[in-house]
Amino acid sequence: QQQQQQQHPQAPAEPPSPTQSPTSTTAASQKAVGVKEAHPTLRLLGSKRPLNIPITQEPAPMTEDMMVQQQELLTNMGTSDEAASSRAKYQSLSLKSDMQAFKAANPGCELCDFVRWHSPRDWLPVDDSASAAEKEQGGRLSERMQQSDNIWQVLWKESQAVPVRRQRTLFDCTAEAERALAYLESLTLSDLVHQLMPCLLDDARLRVSSSSLARLPLVAKRIEDMSQMMKGIGYSKSEDLPRFNDIIRGIADIEIQMAKAEALASRFEAGGLQNFFPLVEAMLLHPEVLLLEEAHRNMARRLIEEGSPNGLGVPDSREFVFRTVSSQPSAVSRPCAHRMYCHLSENGFRVAGAFSKDTVFY
Question: Which of 137, 111, 110, 114 lies closest to 126 in space, CA to CA?
Answer without folding.
Answer: 137
